[in-house]
Design goal:
Largest sheet: 6 strands, antiparallel
Strand content: 25-35%
Structural class: alpha+beta
Helix content: 25-40%
Distance between the termini: 26 Å
Strand order of the largest sheet: 1-2-3-4-6-5
Number of strands: 6
Number of helices: 3
Length: about 160
Amino acid sequence: MAIIDGLRLVVTDRPRQSSAAPTVLTRPRALLITKAVAAAVPEARHFARRVALRWAIAEEPCETLSLIVSELVTNAVLHSGSADVTALIVFDGTAVTVEVTDFGRWLVRDANRRVAEDGDAAFGRGLDLVRACASWLTIHPSPAGTRVVAHLPVGESGADQ
């Protein structure tokens, strides 16, 4: 597992700035890289919560962010066949963007697994739940893996940017 917080922007086609003028982040970000195993789900949920608390995001959107990250990482663990999963969280002061990426294959189901008997099932609704919580959601399947991006308005933060 790797947790990276406060990533610096690196531009390779420009000369490096002197150490006297450090790059200033305008959007705090945090990155979790972990194995795509069951234990990654609570790890990612707690990671999202710690990050949101550090950025002074209010309790309700903090819980929603944790839920979104948990659901998206669960999907990567259960359905991608990927060895690893990454979760990138970016905060712009009023909204959080979550990007979860796996390196497996998008698994297309032959049929909708939700039947009347599954109405109360505790599975199969992750993306619907994320769609309901986020202002928007995009899914980018490719032969190299799947990237899912969700955007969550969180209001103003009390943290120093």
